[in-house]
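Quarterly update from the structural biology core.
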Amino acid sequence: MNGSFRQSMSWLHTWTGLLVGWVLLAMFCTGTATYFRPEITRWMQPETGVPGGSDRAAAAAVAYLQKVAPDARSWSITLPDEREATVRVFWRPQPAPGEEDRPRRRGRSENQAVLDSATGEVVKPRETRGGELFYRFHFQMHYMPVIFGRWVAGFCAMFMLVAIVSGVITHKRIFKDFFTFRPAKAAQRSWLDAHNMTAVLALPFHAMITYTGLVTLMSLYMPWGVVANYKSEDTFFQAMFPQAEEVERSGVAAPLAPLPQVLGEASRAWGGGRPWIVNISNPGDAAARIEVTRHSGDKLSYRGGQLTFDHAGRRVGGSPQAGAADVTQGAMYGLHMGRFAQPALRWLYFLCGLTGCAMVATGLILWTVKRRQQLPDPERPHFGFRLVERLNIGTIAGVPAGMAAMLWANRLLPAGMAERSDWEVQSVFITWGGMIVYACLRPAKKAWAEALGAAGFMIAALPLVSAITTPHRNLVANALRGDWAMVAFDLTLPVLGAGVAYCGWKAARYRPAVKAKRSAAKPMEQAA
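Predicted structure, tokenized:
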């Protein structure tokens, strides 16, 4: 790293982008998909219905719990919203004599159920991770310990932040170049234009999403403030997320106030805010407590707060007023997650995320295009160059193909298959790895077109696969029952698939430009 300051920043921009570029691309793709996490999960669970009203869902959930677990230690109800079609209920049984009373894991299937939000009937959707896999992967990876994966994601995000700042410094005409795109020019110029355009188009978003992503896990990356001010992690989390004290059963039977009435009172207290999670301790007892948590998408800050009511629906407590630091951190988290966004803004988030994917992908391609022209023999590059080029092809095609493969597996794997959900997840990484192997076995020019063409086909064909395997959830059926979110989902997939295939065609088409340019220069050199 020598020369002028701008040249030094160019070197820094190039290598910070390349070294973690493949992981960054996977993080951007899965993170972008996360903005439609509930919709992806609904698509992957066609047994569920359409979103219904929260009041009816709450009443149905209480009726179900009173039937199956009337004497439980506590109940938990996750209410639906305009994007969710089910109510999830969980109960914690009373401890047996001599057994320690401790919370049970929600993963125990015998203590939980899924109800249709419109009818209140029990539904048994197919086993799947749904959109949750993409959400978890984008900040904690997979096949590794969670904390280690979060450190990897933080390391890559820090490199991304450095690449953004150094990229702005490097391109002194970056905003002017944004309005310049020359697809018919030489390969390096065309890919540089595409890289500049996708980078500047959503530059504030890229900077915001990277920085806020680091802030969401700041207590992991910078724990010294917690260590200096709290005795343990437990005391820190109790201060950050205070919980109401558990009240022992009184032994006096008392009916529970109608839950819709309690939810209405909570909503009025929040100025129209939506209830989301309801925890009821000691149901059916005079010492019952109803804790209502506000929906995380009601406002910019991700933390909505809680209100506590007694068995008769009287308000008896609530979470304390958040401090400035807590509000700031919650706003950063909310900005990153985008749960507050209404449909138009959510689509803007999604489109900006796609430009981030394109920015990383074009940066990786630009690295190989630029350096190929500098090789002594561009047609016989050295091993390091071939390795980077094949990893570029395998990852740029493999990540979207792997994500599509999970949706294919969701429709094609037998419903009663053992570890079905795990095999859906495995399909993502099998496909990604397969694309890398395929790219290593084929000439680069053909690999670009074939790998990205295959990825585009896998994405574009998903609505057809869904219509064949689950005809009651095809495009027409969704439109007839007014499920416009699923209609938009099915219409978006072919567009995304066509875009991926087009990029492969472009990448393959530009490859001969280097050879043509060098062969044209030979006669001039001989004449000289």
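Strands lie at 74-78, 86-92, 112-116, 275-281, 289-294, 306-310, 315-318.
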